[in-house]
Amino acid sequence: MITFKEKADTKKDVEGLLHPIVKQWFFSRFQEFSLPQLYGVSEVHARNNILVSAPTGATKTLTAFISILNALVDCSEKGILQEKIYAVYISPLKALNNDIEKNLLGPLEEMEKIAGKKFGIRVAVRTGDTTPTEKQKMLKKVPHILITTPETLALLLSSIKFCEHLKQVEWIISDEIHAIGDSKRGVHLSLSLERLQRLSPGMCRIGLSATVYPLETVAQYLVGNERDCKIIDVQYLKKNDIQVISPVEDFVNESYSEIEKATYNLLDQLIQEHKTTLIFTNTRAATERVVHHLKEKFPHKYVALDEETKEKTDLIGAHHGSLSKEHRLKLENDLRAGKLRCVATSTSLELGLDIGSIDLVICLGSPKSVSRLLQRIGRSNHQLSGITKGKILVQDRDDLVECAVMLKFAKEKKIDRIHIPTNCLDVLAQQLFGMALEGVWDVKEMYTVVKSSYCYRDLTKKDFEEVLDYLAGNFISLEERYIYARIWWNKEEGKVGKKGRMSRVIYMTNIGTIPDHQGVLVKDQRGNKIGMIDEAFLEKLDRGDIFVLGGNTYQFSFARGMVAQVIPMPGKKPTVPSWYSDRLPLSYDLANGIGNFRELIENQFKKKKDKKEVLHFIHEYLYVDKVAADALYNYCKDQYDYIGMPSSKKLLIEHYRDENMKNYVVFHALYGRRVNDVLSRAVAFAISRAQHKDVELGISDNGFYISYDRNVNVSKAFSMLKSKELRKVLELAVDKSEILKRRFRHCAGRALMILRTYGGIKRRVGRQQVSSMILLNAVRRISENFFILRETRREVLEDLMDYDSALEVLQSIEEKKIKIEEIHTFIPSPFALNLVMQGYSDILRMEDRQQFLQRMHQMVKAKIALKSSR
Amino acid sequence: MLIHDNIKIRDLGLYLIKEKTLIISDIHIGFEEALNRQGVLIPRVYLREFFERLKKMLDHVDTVVINGDLKHEFAGMSSSEWQGTDELFRILEGKNVIVIKGNHDPILPFVLKIKILPFLKLGDVLIAHGDALLKEEAKIIIIGHEHCAIGLKEGIRIEKFKCFLKGKYKKSILIAMPSCNLATEGTDVIRSERLSPYLQQNLNQFEVFIVSDTVYAFGKVKELF
Predict the structure, then answer these.
(1) What is the ipTM of this complex?
(2) CATH of B2-224, one of 3.60.21, 1.20.120, 3.30.1960, 1.10.10
């Protein structure tokens, strides 16, 4: 049962649990127990499963560790400290692990000082970076507290020698659970926890999470099926001071460069008013751009010159995942030491790394979800007592509406729902292989262990057995099976075990769920670095194509290896739609909130309220200042006058034709990109099913478009689309998409059908993709329902896209809760143009290769005939 | 389809009518095993599929010329290469088989019982793998090596197909063949760097013949932009 712990324990209760030395140490460092400690310490002491949800810096980790250190000190004092691992701590970040080690070793030393002797309590970090010597040491002198990552835990579980030490674990702490539970990495971890629980049946689970919703689901994920968990909810402990600010009053009539200029002036002003500022951007490229521009525009403020040595040091820096480990470490240290005025980052500083005292967080552009906003703002004033201070600096009109509603949600504590992937068959394959490496299994028990994970609660026996069949090589004819089999499966006796000399090495070197990623560097003729694009995007570019990158337009010349050469073409119209792979999608819940707001505003306009009255409403409904309210009013009025106001109850469809006579159907559908991805493909599929031609489509958070070279009856297509058939339609539609090809590589990698490292050689991403295409075609020849192919479709539909919410939208349309309105514009509305230029794009292949070839052949024949008749 | 006087495209091969000779190129037996050895668990379906196609190419054929890269591994003979080569010769039993050396075939002379030629001249026709320029001249030169393919592009869709190319090399007619390895389409000759020294010139005037369910004449390369 999942329950909430409603009442905190008293200080006396908690004190009573602590060993005198631990108690003395605690009060030498802190005056009082924090709220999370009053709630949590006794539960950890009693070995109960708990989920603690509190903002960053709320002493969550110490809450979990006090009782554990207490127990270890107690054992040591009584001379009964055993040679075993008592507690395993898991965090998704290697860097966080070193912090934790420091934060445990420090207190232990201080306690030893109080006690006047050594306890002999060992703490060790084990990650991919741990040296063989250190590993040997750990085997001989096993740490009492093991700090590790999800991947390394899975490795240890398959190591026969180390497994011996994992048989009496009493606590497992899963930190930053909100950041891992929503990914396949989290699914992978959930199975590792079940494997560990089987070895240590008495183990209790402690989950630590930032603000997340719904807590019950996260608690379920943490403990697995049919286990109890108490939730400790202290999410709103910190007071937030968050503001939405706009660099200009009117986004419509200011030029791009004016807005940019105003943005940087405002940024500079804010940074100068505070001691240390952290700026979050939404992409790595934007992070670089911010640092670059601030340094360039205000050199004397952000570059310090040492008068004596004439040495220059930067007072500002960038921190993101593409930068080297050394660079990031140095920056973190400088930040902690207070040497920097400002750091710009994308997502890499979102998690609980200690970064010292930050007095202001600026989100440049919408963080796209309420929980991410709170997480980011929470990085300011990293002490519980203080107020967190954050500003959301909006960048355009859509951004403004989005952030204003987001702020309302944050203030009113409406957090977006977390999505936890389920039944991932690729992760299952990897883990079943890992389990077989542990020793011989009874298949029934194996199935039970897997089914205990929340992520596999609905796993069917059929799927489970199909994955085992794959691992046993049963999809290949008998004579070649030995090459493919990683396990043996005796179906009569119901036993499974490992197979092949190499299997352990293969597992050890290929474990994990995060696919390799490689960007393509974009350079101009002079060799200046402009940014990164995806390899898949590069494949689509032909010489002469013009595309947008970082707000500017460039013409593609050629590519050599992983570098794309371009020529700047300022002001030119792009010929290919842009593509943002690392762009965060707007959450569906927040999108709905924006839709509601639009509906309310539309009502105001319909009632012919004057500007003052509407502004009054805006101020009452949202928490924005005067400048932002004015900008909001202007935007909404514009849209209302131009094409009407799309809202959560009204889907607006705009038709227009561009100068090349290409038809565009733009859906002003405010549901977020993950939902629009599904809807657009379903509609495109319905449209083209009748006409058998490829359809180009583009998707953004605020809508999607479908482009076509003849007239389309969209209403008819919509009426053809039934929510009951949505899944089937989408599986067919996704099967023909580009995204499936890329995701297939990821899934085949996780299922170890494509090894990233083999025979000591690491395969480049490009090579992996080539092999993946050869594999995909070969697998299709075996079965269109091969489990990796099925899993790829599921991942695309459920994890990358948001199938469930899209279904909800479609049902609402069927039930007429959402109205559809169609308009034809002679000149496309600015909102439509924005969407077409910014949407990320894919094509839906209605024609198969053969049909495509035949049609292209007809076209060429016609062209040749025309020429010869002239 | 006739690609030149006396020369017909027959699936992925060329058929010299008078000589009753079939030319095929770049089978790369062992490619799938090579991928297996790099850690890709690819089921071995492609070579089998090619053999089925080959069986249908043998009508009225007396001689079969294998124009290089019969097998994949540079050094040594992998087990699937033994098996695959055995099966190939079983399929070609009763035919006069001539093997021309490709760049992947340095050890072939030591393992095959038949003679491996550096090139073959049949009347006006010079058949060579095409990885290196030969001093030999002829009216018609037929090469493999390049794994010719061409990408057809429309909007943002691009699909690659195996093809034959026919154009000029100096004063000779040059025909470049697609590969008989079905795992990949091959090199997109208008979008990637070309390998063969016979194909370094501008290809705009070359004629394209795409091979799919049947042969499609696509006119000149320049028409495809």
Answers:
(1) 0.91
(2) 3.60.21
